[in-house]
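PROTEIN DESIGN WORKSHEET
SECTION A - STRUCTURE
LENGTH: 568
TOKENS:
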């Protein structure tokens, strides 16, 4: 069969989410994936015999609860779980700091390392909750608001300063407003440096922090979970459900051209010559790939085509996956399993370290020393490595996509060796336990996984490329000037990070337009003030009450009760 109601390009989580919602609406849906396996950047792969890892995204903290509920992913094989640890920072001077998924334990740990910061962390958390309460109304919408409407909503909510903090400041300016401890500032800074072009002092990257921090797991904001079997389990559960309901998924099917007749989509042509017909096409690939390569430029208005060429896709990272024959120990921490093995740990997460990497990035370089993030999911998931063995999955942020005078293929071995050298300084003897490695460079992220410029968000998450200006202003994010052609990838609102909202919203935009006979820009209900902050927030904004509350929350019984009380 070559005739479908809708074709989805790409089997990443957003494409599969869109396919599920369209299938639920009674559509005959075809999903086309150019690789031999589904998942896009939400994928688990075996990089050495018996050793598996999440190649790109590797924790789930943003996947929207409504999508999880609507699509019943747990019934389709997805098992999300948490350990006791959130994130940690290990420094070469032997100091370390860990944030836990239990409030009281976090506050006790913070106060032990940085007295007074527990109260400041609480104040910061309340501000993040307030940010989330305003932004939440725009996550699952088929027509996102304009920037002026967003600003007006913050003003009407009495939160002008909150907008300034999380949309215009640099990451360093943000943490400097709340914290004094270098180790806590460094740990929080990491979240603002994910796949960015710049450093801690670059204005505007505070939003990247807010974007990640307002996610939630099981009703608890700012927390993440691990999918058993790695991130590919998310894509597999989505695919399983879609196929069971009648969708078709074709791998090894690369789209060469989106076919357009009289300014309307009519299907796609693959690189192998196959043609599939449909009145609707949704693309989960990045905006430039869709609009500049799959669509003939002559089919687009000149101004639109030019704007697509200007879409900023800078900001990259790399991964080095390491198979180990034993669990590594780290400086300053007791031998054996500890919190450093059960969550997301950053080695050398310091403001000035991130600044050095950002400075070098501008010149197509990376410094000799840089922070390294890692997880070891095999500690708590026995599907990831053989018994007694482990996988250490690292990430290195703020890398240039284009190197000065060489390519990432040229540089891969030297870069891998540098990562291992740095790891050795934090975990002496780790080299002796290495069975093998696999490196995924920024170039690999683009070439193999379809991430433009190695950007995991499909495009920079800056204020000029957010809301209805993501990817291009004037088209409600998901629509294009070509009738029947929709975007549903991370390059649309609200962005990347395995949130799933672009797939949900793109599908619903298509369904709404079909029901209405087309699309006309709507300005109804695109932003509403959230009123006063909750009573708890207002009480905890008073220094005396907050100080007392933080002391009480450090008591184990009270802390656990507080976790239940603050659940969203």
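SECTION B - SEQUENCE
RESIDUE ASSIGNMENT:
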């Amino acid at each position: 069969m070559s005739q479908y109601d809708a074709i989805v390009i790409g089997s990443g989580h957003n494409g599969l989410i869109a396919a599920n919602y369209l299938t639920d609406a009674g559509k005959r849906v075809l999903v086309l994936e150019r690789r031999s396996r589904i998942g896009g950047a939400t994928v688990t792969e075996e990089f050495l015999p018996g050793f598996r890892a999440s190649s790109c995204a590797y924790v789930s903290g943003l996947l929207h609860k409504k999508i999880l509920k609507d699509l019943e992913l747990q019934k389709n094989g997805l098992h999300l779980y948490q350990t006791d640890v959130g994130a940690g920072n290990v420094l070469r001077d032997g100091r370390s700091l860990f944030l836990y998924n239990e409030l009281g334990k976090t506050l006790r740990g913070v106060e032990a390392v940085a007295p007074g910061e527990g109260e400041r962390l609480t104040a910061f958390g309340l501000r993040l909750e307030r940010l989330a309460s305003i932004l939440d109304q725009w996550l699952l919408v088929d027509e996102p608001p304009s920037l002026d409407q967003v600003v007006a909503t913050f003003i009407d909510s009495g939160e002008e300063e909150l907008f300034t903090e999380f949309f215009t400041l640099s990451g360093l300016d943000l943490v400097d407003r709340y914290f004094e401890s270098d180790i806590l500032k460094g740990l929080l800074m990491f979240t603002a440096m994910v796949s960015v072009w710049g450093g801690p002092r670059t204005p505007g990257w505070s939003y990247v922090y807010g974007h990640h921090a307002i996610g939630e797991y099981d009703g608890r904001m700012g927390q993440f979970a691990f999918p058993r079997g790695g991130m590919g389990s998310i894509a597999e559960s989505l695919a399983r459900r879609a196929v069971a309901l009648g969708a078709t998924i074709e791998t090894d099917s690369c789209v060469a051209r989106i076919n357009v007749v009289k300014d309307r989509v009519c299907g796609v042509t693959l690189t192998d010559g196959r043609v599939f017909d449909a009145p609707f096409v949704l693309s989960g690939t990045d905006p430039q790939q869709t609009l500049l390569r799959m669509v003939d430029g002559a089919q687009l208005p000149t101004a639109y085509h030019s704007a697509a060429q200007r879409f900023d896709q800078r900001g990259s990272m790399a991964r080095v996956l390491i198979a180990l024959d034993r669990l590594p120990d780290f400086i300053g921490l007791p031998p054996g399993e500890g919190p450093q093995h059960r969550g997301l740990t950053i080695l050398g997460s310091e403001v000035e370290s991130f600044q050095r990497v950002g400075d070098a990035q501008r010149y197509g370089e990376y410094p000799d020393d840089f922070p390294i993030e890692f997880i070891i999911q095999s500690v708590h998931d026995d599907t990831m490595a053989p018994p007694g063995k482990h996988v250490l999955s690292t990430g290195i942020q703020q890398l240039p996509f284009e190197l000065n005078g060489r390519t990432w293929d040229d540089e891969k071995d030297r870069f891998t060796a540098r990562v291992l050298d740095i790891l050795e300084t934090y975990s002496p003897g780790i080299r002796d336990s290495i069975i093998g490695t696999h490196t995924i460079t920024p170039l690999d992220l683009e070439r193999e996984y379809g991430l433009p410029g190695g950007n995991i968000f499909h495009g920079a998450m800056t204020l000029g490329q957010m809301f209805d200006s993501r990817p291009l202003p004037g088209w409600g994010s998901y629509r294009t000037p070509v009738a029947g052609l929709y975007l549903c990838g991370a390059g649309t609102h609200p962005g990347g990070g395995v949130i799933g909202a672009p797939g949900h919203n793109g599908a619903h935009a298509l369904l709404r337009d079909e029901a209405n006979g087309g699309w006309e820009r709507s300005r109804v209900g695109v932003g509403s003030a959230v009123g006063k902050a909750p009573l708890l927030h207002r009480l905890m904004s008073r220094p005396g009450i907050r100080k007392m509350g933080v002391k009480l929350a450090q008591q184990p019984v009270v802390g656990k009760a507080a976790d239940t009380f603050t659940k969203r």
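SECTION C - NOTES
The longest helix spans residues 117-135.
The two ends are 46 Å apart (CA to CA).
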